[in-house]
Amino acid sequence: MRGTSVRMLLSLPRIPLVHGPTPLRPLSRLGAELGIDLWVKRDDMTGGADAGNKLRKLELLFAEALARGATHVVTCGGIQSNHARATALVAASLGIRAVLLLRTTSDAERGARPSGNVLLDRLAGAEIRWVTPDEYRRRADEMASVAETIRRDGGTPYVIPEGGSNALGAMGYALAMCEIREQVARGEGPSSRNGIAFDSIVLACGSGGTAAGAMLGAAREGVAAHVVAIAVCDDEDYFRAAIDRLCGEADARYRLPGPSLTSLDVIDGYKGPGYAQSYPEMRATMLRAARTEGLVLDPVYTGKAFHALCTEGRALGNRVLFLHTGGLPGLLASGADLADDLRS
Ligand SMILES: Cc1ncc(COP(=O)(O)O)c(C=O)c1O
Fold first, then answer.
1. Which entry of 11, 28, 81, 207 is annotated as an active-site residue?
2. What's the CATH fold of domain 54-164?
3. 323 lines ligand 1 (CB under 6 A)
4. What is the pLDDT of residues 203-256, one digit of tens each?
């Protein structure tokens, strides 16, 4: 199953941001309850306040930004965007100005006391520009226009798309698959069968870059034959197209052939009422994970992905790897939503 190593195919400039390798651990108690051999890759531990899946993408994206002499980075996301927060903190650490286009729906949201990711954005000195959902739909144009203003003022902008999800950002997760392969080879994971460690790798999907990177590396690196992307917004068709496009761009740009060895499932039945909106069964799973394994999930991304994993259970295979992609600041901003659940 294994082709050429992703690491051999890629000699991309990277700035070291990830505190890696992040732990690969069994979740024995929950696994026993679900009747599967369940493991977690703790990419919520890639760093400190900047931690989460975005750091793997930003290692490559900021290397390119620095190589192009960027004075500013421009990016976008929802009001509690983990990606925007990681970008703001990394930019500050490199002496680069961050401009964040954050989507809000009301003046009340805009005027609220900063919490969670917004608090960290502000601490990092990022410039926040609030955009309406309508403006956000035209985010590429909006960011291009901010970049143009920066250029006119003598700066050098570098635009990072939503979620850091372009071909370069996605490579961060192709490389993460190498890290897992090395951990398995050192005996830190389950023993491989037919050269493959896990039946499937389950992850939250918000812009598709993490799933695309996993698709490019998972089977090639002997990590998993199957990627299961749990949509937290949009739907299956949207993400299949997005992941396909990212894999195609990666092939064109880095000659990393398409993910023909890995199969993809996009499951969109666990979004609940919508993006960043929680529901009781998902919140119950968050409590179960925290109380059974000390595994802290967030209500926007990892809570929904892990709830899908627990519900689908054995249908995902016998040896399942959950990719924990972070999101703690978002959880800390949503205490009010969980208040009732915490009474039990
Ligand atoms: C905590 C967390 N998990 C998962 C994701 C999804 O990753 P991607 O945007 O690469 O699909 C994001 C960002 O969107 C995130 O912040």
1. 81
2. Rossmann fold (3.40.50)
3. no
4. 999 999 999 999 999 988 999 999 999 999 999 999 999 999 999 999 888 877
Q: Which residues pair with 203 in a beta bridge?
A: 229
CB 149 within 8 A of CB 71: no
How far apart (Å, rounded) are the C-alpha atoms in residues 56 and 59? Answer: 5
Q: Are 56 and 46 in contact (CB under 8 A)?
A: yes
- CB of residue 325 inside a 6 A radius of ligand 1: yes
Task: Count CA within 13 A, CB hemisphere, residue 109.
Answer: 15
Task: Enumerate the domain spans of the chain.
Answer: 6-51+166-343, 54-164
Q: Could you tell me if the CB of 213 is within 6 A of ligand 1?
A: no
CA distance 119 to 99: 15
CATH class of residue range 6-51+166-343: alpha beta
Q: Tell me the average pLDDT across 91-104.
A: 98
Q: Provide the 10 A C-beta neighbour count for residue 64.
A: 17
Would the CATH topology of 6-51+166-343 be identical to that of 54-164? yes
